[in-house]
Amino acid sequence: MLHTATLVHDDVVDDSTLRRGFFSINAIWKNKIAVLVGDYLLSKGLLLSVEYKEFDLLQIVSQAVREMSEGELLQIEKARRLDIDESVYYEVIRKKTASLISSCCGCGASSAKANQDDILTMQKFGELIGLAFQIKDDLFDFEDSVTTGKPTGIDIKESKMTLPLIYSLQQSVKSEKREIINIVKNNNGEKEKVKRVLAFIKEKEGIAYAKKKMFELRDEAFLLLNGFAESEYKASLKELVNFTTDRTH
After folding, report:
1. What is the model's pTM?
2. Which of 53, 74, 93 is where one domain is finished?
3. Spatial separation of the C-alpha atoms in residues 52 and 54, rounded to whole Å
C-alpha cells in the first residue's frame, strides 16, 4: 500500500498520464483526487502497523516514507539547474528508490524476530539492491525499446540526470559539457538532438561505467548474505539480487 501511494503521488509530481500502460489516477480524476487517494493509501499502510501493534515495523516504514519525500524534493531542487554530480545522484536514488526496498528487507527481518544487527544488515542489503535496481532502470533508457518496453532516450527528454549522463559529462571538456546540458535542458524534444546526447554518452563510456557500478553494488549485496547460514531463504535472496541486475524490463 505504501508503494502504491508513492506511485500515485509520483504521477502527480511528474505530471504523468500513464502508469504501466493504463491511465494514471491524476489523468482520470485530476491532481486533487490523486493526492487524496495517495494520502489515504499512505495512512492506511501505516495504520496496519499500529493496528497489529507492530511498532518496530511502523518505525522502519515511517522512516522510508520520510526519506522518499526528501529524495523527491532533492531531485526537484537539483533538476532546475541540472547540477547533479555522482554523490547527489546516489543520495537521490538512495532516498527515492532504495529506502523503500531497504524497509521491506528490514521489516522481513524484524517480523521474523531477528536481532538488531541482522535487521540493520538486511536494511543495508535492501538499500544496495535498491541502488542497483535504479541504475538498471536508468540503463534501459539506452537499450532497444522493443526489448525493454521503455522508449529509448525518454530520461533525456524529461531532463533527468542519470548515472551514464553524469559520468559522461565528468569526462568532457567545458564546451562539450555546455552543449550537452543545453540540449538536455532546452532541446530535449528534438529527435536529432537527443540522438546526439545518446551518442555522446556511448562515446564517453557512460553506459559501461554505470554497469560497472551496478555490478559492484550487486557484489556488495552478495557479501552481506555470506554472514547467514545456507537455506532456501538465502537462495531466494540471491535470486532476487541476480534478478535486479539481469532483468530485461
Report:
1. 0.89
2. 53
3. 5
